[in-house]
Amino acid sequence: MLESLDTETVPVQGTNIAKAIELAVSMFDKSEENERLVLILTDGENHEQKAIEAAKSAFEEDIIVSTVGIGKKGATPIPDHKTGEYKKKDGKVIITKLNDVLLTQIANAGGGEYIESGNFFKDLQKIQNQIDNLGTKDGQTEIDAYADLFPYLILAAFIFLIIEFILLEKRNQYLSD
User: Fold this and answer.
1) CA 58, CA 49: separation in Å to the nearest integer?
2) What is the 3-state secondary structure (H, E, C) of 11-64?
3) 3-state secondary structure of 172
4) Considering only CA atoms, which of 150, 144, 52 is closest in space to residue 101?
């Protein structure tokens, strides 16, 4: 489905971070005791209000809301990859900029962390660390020890294969010659 998405998929332009948080919260199973995380990747240009309240509400339901700021702090035109020019509305170039103040406030209200995008691999590591820390209490992680039992199954299959080969040879007169 991701391959079919592009910038024209959403008919109304603008960002409603509160609605995104509310939708993400509604998709979690309320009966689970696991820690849950909503990770929002955006430039922070919020065209609707109540994003901070939505993050607080999610955190009250034990759902952590973290944000990743994508974009530049200064005003930047949005490129149109189809035409090679900048996107325009009513003949004017559309400008966007990173709203790191709002994204920090949302992350703080949601009990999460704000990560400013810059170094892609470093950012991915920060996100991975945050996900890895879910389910930890006081820096401790529960680890279930599992025993690999597949070698025994392979041994049993190999033994049955040998038995089948021996029985097949005795029953098949062409092979017994």
Assistant:
1) 16
2) CCCCCCHHHHHHHHHHHCCCCCCCCEEEEEEECCCCCCCCHHHHHHHHHHCCEE
3) coil
4) 52
Tens of pLDDT, residue by residue over 106-117, are 999 999 888 887
As a whole number of angstroms, the longest Cα–Cα distance in the chain is 90
- For residue 114 the two structure tokens come to 């704000």
Which of 132-139's residues contact partners 24+ apart within 8 Å by CB, and which partners?
Answer: 134/34, 134/35, 134/36, 134/37, 134/64, 135/34, 135/35
Instruction: Give the model confidence (pLDDT) of 109-150 as tens digits.
Output: 999 888 887 656 666 777 777 777 766 555 455 556 667 778
Closest-CA residue to 14 (of 70, 93, 103, 94): 94
C-alpha atoms less than 13 angstroms from C-alpha of 73 in its C-beta half-sphere: 4
83 pLDDT tier (thresholds 50, 70, 90): confident
